[in-house]
Design goal:
Blueprint lengths: L4 H6 L1 H18 L5 H21 L2 H9 L1 H5 L2 H10 L6 H11 L1 H17 L2 H4 L1 H17 L9
Helix pairs in contact: 3-4, 3-6, 3-10
Length: 152
């Protein structure tokens, strides 16, 4: 997008604003669709936005990356709820393990940056987060179940 550091820093607000809007939209969707389907849809939306960013330039590429916040916003609470469901007395153990998995959210961006540095291609480095989102979509699809008002 050709922005200086200060202007680029101000774009962070757009990401987090998108995350807030995505959380409201996701919460509304969860009233009508199963959590697994919402999770899979959000992960597929993130993959689509990454693909748009890698295949375009300028404002389209930049804003599509910022829009990933829309998809990310509903993922963790939905993953957490689905993964802890039906754990019964082991819920505390399960939630602890899931919270340790948050570490991936800190490591994957670093590895993505390393891939970009090594290959010289930011687009190539986005393959790693796309794989992560594909795993999340698979988990959502696997964990789906009909919710009230949702017919399979």
């Amino acid at each position: 997008m050709g922005l200086n550091s200060e202007a680029a820093g101000k774009m962070i607000g757009i990401y987090w604003g998108g995350a807030m809007v995505g959380r409201f939209i996701g919460s509304a969707l969860l009233r009508f669709l199963s959590p697994g389907k919402v999770l899979a849809g959000a992960a597929l939306a993130a993959i689509t936005l990454l693909a748009i960013s890698t295949q375009t330039t300028g404002h389209v590429a930049g804003y599509s990356l910022l829009a990933v916040g829309l998809a990310n916003s509903i993922m963790f609470p939905t993953i957490f709820s689905l993964a802890c469901e039906k754990l019964g007395s082991r819920a505390a153990d399960g939630s602890g393990i899931i919270n340790v998995a948050i570490f991936g959210g800190a490591v994957i961006p670093l590895i993505t940056g390393m891939i970009a540095d090594i290959t010289g291609s930011l687009g190539m480095s986005f393959i790693l987060p796309a794989i992560c989102y594909a795993v999340i979509a698979g988990f959502g699809w696997y964990a789906r179940r009909p919710a009230v008002g949702d017919q399979a």
